[in-house]
């Protein structure tokens, strides 16, 4: 347990706050910063401790995929000597906790929120492990990584094959001897594959439909080009895919060892065994869809498309930038493998890196669609008094990241401030209340 805020239990003595913030990560801390600027009393309830997910839910060599200059918590930008670098796990924890120490939010650690309901008087009731709180506004800043996804058919595998989710992976040494199968090629999957490969482990990888991105192109970090091009300022309402953009898998690359792109074809040449998406499991045999080459091609198409977008920007702006050779596919599967006996192949561990599901069952309000996803406009729920923060594409690409959290947090604080002002203007004055009583 962190000791950053172990002296703030007195905040629990008050049970009636205008605003209750659920979650003490970078999202909850950011909105707390702006609520304090508005002079709005509130409390931040954190189930574990500030920056817990960064400290405890990442592998040992984890680092940011986006460069340090994108770390822009409210009035607290990255101030180190390596803006083009990528913070390691411990450095990320230090950054978030340093922001908390500077801003001193009214956060209480070790308090879990169990239920949010509507009271008869119209206010919200927040039931927690430290008692019930009455409030007019609840900001859900818990993120969307609550429930690790492992497919039901994984239960069919023999017990002697170890199965873990990516959230539980720490290092190659923690796994049994033998070969490892990583399922999923989002950012976590490809980075875990590389971590194992660099450690000398024999790795198998099930390749999904995730896109990939260049790291450095034409003499500059691709994210810097994209920033100049306005890509990160594109809002969800202007995105060509609309709300479907929220369902897209992030482009994969890595910040490891100074940052580089990941071409799975190169890893195949180095001995990593590639397969298509997992279709089913029977005993120790895994069956795959015949989509390996398509998934590789689709990822490369996105990769090349980003390069072409940058080329057009450079040409339009008349920028003097070095020319790079065209992309070449260095490997392709001669014949796709559609089944694999894991035990016969010497696979002793399977790592599921296929994502998470949010868990909002504790919010007993009509705020969700048929799939259980929250409905909102820039984080403002259709349910009065409920808000969401820190989710991917809440408003822009940076909404779920250090880059865009400040803008989203400021917006929600402004909305709440205006609603509080409007409520105060329409409520009876104390003298009038006394005369009417």
UniProtKB/TrEMBL annotation:
It holds the Pfam family Pyr_redox_3. It comes from the Bacteria. Keywords: Oxidoreductase. This is MSMEG_0569 family flavin-dependent oxidoreductase. It comes from Curvibacter microcysteis. The lineage of its organism: Bacteria, Pseudomonadati, Pseudomonadota, Betaproteobacteria, Burkholderiales.
